[in-house]
Amino acid sequence: NAGVTQTPKFQVLKTGQSMTLQCAQDMNHNSMYWYRQDPGMGLRLIYYSASEGTTDKGEVPNGYNVSRLNKREFSLRLESAAPSQTSVYFCASSYPGQGIGYTFGSGTRLTVV
Amino acid sequence: DQQVKQNSPSLSVQEGRISILNCDYTNSMFDYFLWYKKYPAEGPTFLISISSIKDKNEDGRFTVFLNKSAKHLSLHIVPSQPGDSAVYFCAASAGGGSYIPTFGRGTSLIVHP
Fold first, then answer.
1. Which residues of B are less than 8 Å from A100 in CB distance?
2. Using one digit for the tens of pLDDT, what is the confidence trace for A27-67?
3. Do A43 and B100 count as a contact with CB atoms less than 8 A apart?
4. Does residue A52 contact residue A71 with C-beta atoms inside 8 Å?
5. Which chain A residues contact residue B98 at CB under 8 A?
6. What pLDDT sits at residue A76?
7. Residue (of B67, B72, B65, B71) closest to B49 by Cα position
């Protein structure tokens, strides 16, 4: 099925551990995004990639790194996880300049203990 | 400072009645507005949008109203159905929707049978 695929769906990390969240889209979208959703905080943009080969910081980039591996894949890395990074992470993709064209993945629920 | 505000964290409505979800914004550069719907354990999905050149947009049971002078928009769902129970995010974008949207914190709608 066409869409945005995120792996893993669930993850528990110990403080200080590292991990990479994977995201892939098969809609030939140019732009990809990583958001986090926290209770009462809505969706906050972590990083985005307007096109292959470019990445930019969003609202809450501290503690994260990203890699736009190719047009399909955009990964989010936590180098040293902290409890404050406990959240639900959503990847999304779109054509550039299309706020209505966002397609979201189903999310990764991350708990850092 | 929140640029997009959804002041009601939750709303409870009886099936068949009207649901009205409200959203306020502060940035006068915003000229394109969107509503996304999110079910538990799923990613948000696009619901309806409106450009600032309009004051109303309808799509079936869903209507969005925009009051530019008050910097206020609302989503009306008529009639409400139990399947509408979800979290609704308001989002605003500049540049006619070409800029990455800013999301509100969401309103949880519960429609009782």
1. 34, 46, 49, 97
2. 999 999 999 999 888 899 999 998 888 999 999 999 999 99
3. no
4. yes
5. 96-99
6. 98
7. B65
